[in-house]
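User: I want to check something. If I give you two sequences, will you return the structure for each one separately, not as a complex?

Assistant: Yes, each is folded on its own. Here is the first sequence with its structure:
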Amino acid sequence: MRYIFILFSIAFFTFLVYPKQEEIKLKDSMQDLSSVYYKNGLEYASNGEFDLAKEEFKKSIELNKFNIDAQSALKILEKLEKKEIEPNYVNVLFTNLLLKLEIKRISSELNNIKEDFLNVKKDIEVLSKNINSAKEDLENKNLNLRSKVDSLKDDVDYIKNRIR
C-alpha cells in the first residue's frame, strides 16, 4: 500500500504539478519579452521612428495582451497618425516614459544592491562573532598551556631537588 501511495505521488507531481510550473515559467518569459518589445518601442518612438515603434508595441501586445502600457502607447501613435497630437509632444512623452522605465530599473537594481549589502553586513557580523569566539578559545587554550608548562617546570624543579 505504501508503494502505491509513493507511485501515485510521483505520478501526480509529474503529470499535474510539474507542467504547471513550466507553464508559469513560460508565461513569465513571455511577459519579460513583452517588456523588451515595449522598451524597444519607447526607444524608437522617442527617436521619432514611429512606424518601428508601432511594430514593437504590437509585438509586445501579442505576447502579453494585458500590457496596458503598450496598448496606451499604440493608441498615442494612432492619435499621432490622425494628427490629433503633435510629433514633438509624442517624442517628449515617449522620452519621458523611457526615462521613467529606466529610473524604475535603476531603483530596482539599487534595492537589490541594498539587500546584498545588508546580507554582507550580517555575514560580517557573524564572522566577527566567530572570530571573537575563536580568539577567546585560543586565549583560554594559551592560558591552559601556560599553566601546564608552569606545572611541568615545577615538577622538573621538584625532581631536580629530590635528585640532589
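And separately, the second sequence with its own structure:
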Amino acid sequence: MRQALADSQRVQLSMCQAIASLYLAETLLPIDADEAREVAEAGLKLARELAYRAHEGELLRVSAAALAATDPAAAEARAGEALALARSLGTRPEEGHALRVLGDIQVKQGREDAARVSHNGARAIYQDLGMRYWLERIG
C-alpha cells in the first residue's frame, strides 16, 4: 500500500492517492495508530480538496479510530462527522462502520449506555445488509 500511495503521488493520480491513503491507514490501525492517523489526515485533506465525499467519510472514520486511544474527545467528534456524512450520502455500510467505531470510542470512555446504542445501530445495519463479517466484529 505504501508503494501504491507513492506511485499515485508521483504520477499525480489524486483519486488513487485518496483510496491508497484509506487502505494504508486501515492497514496501519492495529500496528501504528499514530501513522494511521497521519496517513488518514493526508488522505482526508485530499478527499476534501477534490470533493470525494464518500472517501472523506471513510477517512474520517479511520481517523476517529486512530485517535481513540490518545484523544477520545477528538475521536468522538471525527466519528460523529463520519456518521453525519454517511447518513447524508446514504451510504449505509459506512454508516454502520461509523456507528461501530463511535461505539468502540464510547466504550473506551466508559459510556456503556451510549456505546450500546451505537453498537446496536451498527448491528441493525449490518444485519439488514447481510454484512456478517462486520457483524461479528462489534464489541
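Because they were folded independently, the notes below concern the second chain alone. The two ends are 28 Å apart (CA to CA). The domain at 2-135 is CATH 1.25.40.10 (Serine Threonine Protein Phosphatase 5, Tetratricopeptide repeat).
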